[in-house]
Amino acid sequence: MVGELYSQPDMNLRPFAAPWRWTPGTACHICTTWQHEVVCAACRQRFHRGGHRCRCCATRLDGLNGLHELCGHCVQRPPAFDHAFAALDYAYPWDGLVTRFKFGGACELAVPLAGVMAEALRVAMAAAPAGTVLPEVLLPVPLSGARQRERGYNQAWELARRVGPALGVAVEARWVERVLDTPHQTGLDRMARMHNLSGAFAVTAAGRIGLAGRAVAILDDVMTTGATAEALAATLRRAGVAHVQTWVLARTVRDDVDP
Question: How many helices (H) and strands (E) does the chain have?
């Protein structure tokens, strides 16, 4: 059963995160066409841009014509995670949808956004070279208790609990926790974000047992500087995790991608 593939966090911390069901008709959140999906099939196809990305941080490398696997930043300073995947660019129209999903209480957007993410991951996995390590466990980036009560749900969990079962990957929400309620990261550069996140994450006792020696993927909604994934990956490494990937719905576009 799908319900056996993941652990559900404390329901008291996510009062508005019950599964959302479509009504007989709704308007597409992008083109406003009246139909039966929150984001219609035509818009998903029209705005789902593929392309070449850095293997480490998932930033776009289209201008390099696929000749390089890594961006210049990752060549000089490899991150604590081994590989990153992004389904979308954080650009129109997805940036607006993600903002409403994350900050506007639009939990219903988890359904179409997780669908886009899962399908893109299926394609990426099918095209992965032989010997590519696939994650055994999917870990949604945790929120602090205060932030989750403020928001009403954890957007990373809402994506992970749909993406994991769709791909047959177990999801665990209780094996890592956010022990510091850090300030909002919006508008901060990488150094400021890393400073905010120092000591922010911890692996629980159950997580130390369940994660030792395993391959995992961290799941989040957006990667901007990579500071959150870097801090959580470093915490997981110290707990004995053997391989760490980062899966994000959307990746901001960077200019510093020279090899």
Answer: 9, 9
pLDDT, tens only, 47-94: 877 678 898 899 888 665 555 688 888 999 999 999 999 999 999 999
The residues pairing with 220 across neighbouring beta strands, listed in sequence order, are 248
* Of 98, 61, 89, 51, residue with least CA distance to 255: 61
Determine the average pLDDT of the residues in 198-203: 86
Residue 128 is predicted with a pLDDT of 80
Tell which residue, 203, 197, 236, has the closest CA to residue 81: 236
Strand (E) or helix (H) holding 127: helix 110-127
Q: Dihedrals φ, ψ of 223, to 5°?
A: -110, 125
Of residues 86, 82, 160, the one with CA closest to residue 123:
86
Spatial separation of the C-alpha atoms in residues 159 and 60, rounded to whole Å? 23
CA distances from 173 to 124, 153, 156 (A): 24, 13, 10
